[in-house]
Amino acid sequence: MGKRTRIINEPSDIVPLLRAFGSETHKKVFDALQKDWKTEEELEKEVELKVADSLDVLKKSGMVESKWRMPQPGKKPEKEYHSSYARVSVNFQCTVEDLSDLIMITFKSDNEIRKYLDVIEKEVVGGNQSMNGLQRVVDRSIMFIRGVAKRSPILTVKGQRIELIGETE
């Protein structure tokens, strides 16, 4: 497979990307996946760490893809993973205030952003999925809301809406 370039035009896309590479564990997992397709079990043997959380973060950042490995007769198929990109091209413009919010969201602990996550998740489950509607409830910028949603394991940003992961898939 050719090495592709990930193009980032949306400022909030840096949140999961920086989270993925702000951790030594996630970086080790990504580096192992640059070489070849590997199952979760093969990855754990290679990096000698639990990799499920790293795979989730790398998938959310769009840096890892998966497919089903054909099993030996009588065995169950297993998912295997590989890095999607070898390069990143970043091209966006935003206010310094929005950029500082995104950087803070990236590096704050889960507990520090939990109140925002809880409010946004509750609103989305209740049917309030539009950015404008969420902005009125959360009383923060749309970029802030997008960044927090990018941190959530159960939310996904779809244009000007935030949805539960798997809701439209």
SSE blueprint:
Blueprint: E1 4-8, H1 14-21, H2 24-35, E2 38-39, H3 40-47, H4 52-60, E3 64-69, E4 78-83, E5 85-90, H5 96-107, H6 110-125, H7 131-138, H8 142-151, E6 155-158, E7 161-164
Parallel strand pairs: 1-5
Antiparallel strand pairs: 2-4, 3-4, 6-7
Helix pairs in contact: 1-4, 1-5, 2-4, 5-8, 6-8
Number of helical segments? 8
Mean pLDDT: 90
Enumerate the spans where pLDDT stays under 50 for 5 or more consecutive residues: none
Strand order of the largest sheet: 2-4-3
User: What is the oligomer described by this structure?
Assistant: single chain
Which radius of gyration do the C-alpha atoms yield? 17 Å
CATH superfamily of the largest domain: Winged helix-like DNA-binding domain superfamily/Winged helix DNA-binding domain
The counted number of beta strands is 7
